[in-house]
Amino acid sequence: MKAPSSNVQAPGFARNRALGRAAVKWLVSVAVALVFLAPLLWMVRASFTEEPRIFLPGFGGWFDGWTVGNYADAWRRAGLGRGLANSALQVAIIAGAGLIVNAMAAYAFARFVFRGRDVLFAGVVILIVLPIEVLAVPLFFTARDLGLTGGFGAAMAGLSVPFVAKAFNIYFLRQHFLSLPMELEEAAAIDGAGVWRQFWTLALPAVKPALATVVLLDVLTHWGDFLWPLMISTRAETRTVQLSLANLFTQPPLQWGDILACAVLATLPVMLLFRFFQRHIVATEARAGIK
Amino acid sequence: MTAWEKSRARAAPWFLLPALALLAVFVVWPMVRAAAWSFTSADLLAPERAHWLGAANYSELLTDARFRRAFGNTALFALMVVPVQTVVAFFLALWVNRPEPAWRWLRAVFFIPVIVSTPVLAVLWTLLYQPAQGEQMGLINAMVQAIGVPPQAWLRDPHLALPAIAFMSVWQGVGLQMMVFLAGLQAVPGELLEAARIDGAGAWGRVRHVIIPSVRNTIVFVVTVTTVLAFRIFVQPYLMTRGGPGRSTLSLIQSIYETTFLGQDLGRACAASFLFLIWVAFLTLLQRWIAGEERG
Amino acid sequence: MRQGAARMWWRCAQFPLLALALVFVLTGASSRAARTLRIWGHQGQEGENHAMREIVVAFNRAHAAEGVSVEISFFPDFQYTEKIAIAAAAHDLPDAFEVDAPLIARYVDAGLLAPLDRWFGPADQTDFLPTLTEQAKIAGKLYSVAAYDSALVLYYDRAMLAAAGVAPPPADGWTWEEFLAACAKVRAAGVEPVALHMNESADEWFTYAFTPVVWSGGGKLIADDGLRVRGVLASAANIRSLTLWQTLFTRGFAATDPVDPNPFGHGKAAMDWSGHWMAQLHLEAKGAQLGAAPLPHVGAQPVAPCGSWCWSMSAHTKDPELAATWLRWVTSTQHGIVPLVRANGAVPARKSAFGEFPKYQRPPYALFRRQLETFARPRPQTPFYATLTQHFAAALRDIARGADVGGRLRMAENEIQKEIDRRSAHGSREAAR
């Protein structure tokens, strides 16, 4: 739909009216945006509020009772440093290793001609619809049998390795490899570059935006993981950030300020990511239509 | 196949091996195992002690009060979320679909909850729904009180808990579906809109007769994807209400989780997982079918 | 081209490397004791939790010279069973952990627990309350020890009973006929006779609090093999006992959906069917007016329930000696029982520990001790306890709301037996025959 206000040719009176209408639209938008974001704004404000004032309604005491004590408490009580670091490691392994592994498979499906390719690819595509929730329980046993439960190293592997290969990412990257001109590799082959060099130095850099997409998608998805870490992480030292938060949330004495501070800290990394890759993230999520 | 292609094809196994091996180990093999367990009495703490039950796990699940309640709750949740989220997302998309770059900020605003992780939002909304205790109350109660409605114990009232979680989910997901609609709206032919305007169609007429028909496929996509996502709900009720009060917010996934770890009934849990998988596959096929129907 | 590749490698690698570095910086290279024992406890109330932390600190201080220490993690009650199940399935159980008493049989059946007889000999076993060893002994071996046990009694307000013309119950409690007659008089005086806490959300409350009614009438919930409820749960004796229990609701003596969590303490009910955890509060509220008697009994003898959190050792611990050292510490009078019982008000687990608590000379505490030493019974030992308690609680909820006692018990019997048959190899053989 074309916005009516784009009609800027209107002279005089009509033009003033158009301006007025634009102003109204703007005001309505700001109001709606404020109401829409109120929960998150409240979260940030309340995380800096002394415990007894958190649930006082109204904005009368907006400037009273500021404190950063909640953050110090949350950091200590939830072991947040550990949680943040574990989550960072988890998403880094998934996104980093996943990038290479999935791109290789996608490249093979897009660029190599071999027997059984279409059947194999169809098999991969079918796996896309499989929700993790269906697999979680049997996958848990597979992880256990492979020694991916228990201490720090094992649990970190258990949190990440099962999600490195991802059917959707293979499917998505294949589309992008398909759109590259074949001449790229042919020219390189004449220069004597092997298949791996063609892939690594030509094809991969050519689909950089798509690679960024799958990395962002992986990071956002797995940063919020809950069900799987709930099962895999059996020790305090292997908790992810979401588990640290949930732990603070379920263990008395409940300190709401600490919980909110923990929630803010758990959100900060994705917010920073959003700040720097906003347009990319929006396009990515919309395309994948997941979450 | 040219000689060049043939020589390249020799590399194929090496390119495919890492991903396919991982998928085989972490997706296909667990599925096969779960399928086998679902026909047995496998026990979480001693899966090897299982004996063969045939289809008993499946047939008993279909009449199991708890499982049916969980399915009913989840279906009810989807019924609340999907229409509301789709309609709101559609109109938000119309509202923010303006060419001036200055409007980009508004799109970002609606998108922010999408990227915040679900556990954080579940925890946050539990606090927002905090019932009144003397002067103290959560933001939602402060807001409803401002418009003259008495404060409610949202998450502790069996009739309000599920709608409250649904409301939160709509808020969380609407930005994503808005973006999908925005992409769909780019495909609406400008000439058609112009023609409708010249014919004297009002804003609503243009939405009804031009825009909705042209984004039909997007609507089908949004509705089915949202439905599948709604059926996968777990974290919100698990953290916010633990499935209660009573069983009023027990979700399908939580019932599977509890069958596994509280009932320690692995065979039954695997059967429930497969019923869930069949349901999700059915929804996905339904979308393909409706979308395909329209195209053909 | 080569340079591009190198840059790309670096880009891919830097994030994981950074994250790994972050892990080490944020967590620090913690210097660990030579032998560290992992233990799990339930969260409990703040005071109890604090006491448990102090016990761990004291243990570590006392054993610092030997280079051993324990590390405790707490989980809230509602999550505890699921956490144990996950850890057991992941083959990553802590070395020692708390277990809710009626689940011991299940864990032993699944091979999770180590027998403790080597470290807790006859001298210890006779010092523990008999209910504790009875609950924790399976096939002649002891699988758990405890610092405290629980007690459930009928509290009453002397003044309120007297005002209604009711004499206080005798030392062994009323029979159900006497109890119902007393309730009728109190009701006639315009007071709610008894609080039964039917709004309790945990299934376990129902099995814990009301199985004594069944037992006192000579019945059982499940056969002694722990695998058969058919013909046991819906026996004529049980139907009779629970019909008496149902009378409390049909005649309006107790509320099916109470709103007030403590009507007795607030002076709205004359009697309270409740546990040791209310003793302190009730004493403060009622003073000398507070009385306590054993629960009413269908047959000639009173029966009381028992059981609480116990400590067990993982069958797969790599350091059973150290685990046993911890178990001895936390169940010793000086280091474990005294601080824990001071914090949570439960009943000391060792007879020799009662000397530390003068209040056990006086009511209602004296009754707690007496019933645990003479007529308390642990909940049934069965690997299917979770199933049993879930269906039995559901049946009791329905019976309180007026369901036909016999029909509802037979329904529960069928549900439970079906589940046992489906899940146990024994049951399937039975069914095939």
From TrEMBL, chain A:
Entry membrane topology: Multi-pass membrane protein
InterPro entries (alphabetical): MetI-like, MetI-like_sf
Main location: membrane
Chain segments annotated as transmembrane: 23-44, 88-110, 119-141, 153-173, 199-223, 254-277
This protein's UniProt keywords: Cell membrane, Membrane, Transmembrane, Transmembrane helix, Transport
Biological process terms in GO annotation: transmembrane transport
Domain ABC transmembrane type-1, residue spans: 84-277
A Pfam entry, by short name: BPD_transp_1
Superkingdom of origin: Bacteria
Any one GO CC term of the record: plasma membrane
Localization per record: Cell membrane
Family: Belongs to the binding-protein-dependent transport system permease family.
Protein name, per record: Carbohydrate ABC transporter permease
Organism name: Horticoccus luteus
UniProtKB/TrEMBL annotation, chain B:
Record domain ABC transmembrane type-1: where: 71-287
This protein's GO CC annotations: plasma membrane
Topology with respect to the bilayer: Multi-pass membrane protein
Membrane spanning stretches: 75-96, 108-128, 160-183, 218-235, 266-286
Key word Iron present: no
Main location: membrane
Pfam families per record: BPD_transp_1
Entries under PROSITE patterns matching the protein: ABC_TM1 (PS50928)
Keywords noted in UniProt: Cell membrane, Membrane, Transmembrane, Transmembrane helix, Transport
GO biological-process terms attached to the record: transmembrane transport
CDD domains according to UniProt: TM_PBP2 (cd06261)
Subcellular location: Cell membrane
Sequence similarity: Belongs to the binding-protein-dependent transport system permease family.
Protein name: Sugar ABC transporter permease
Organism per entry: Horticoccus luteus
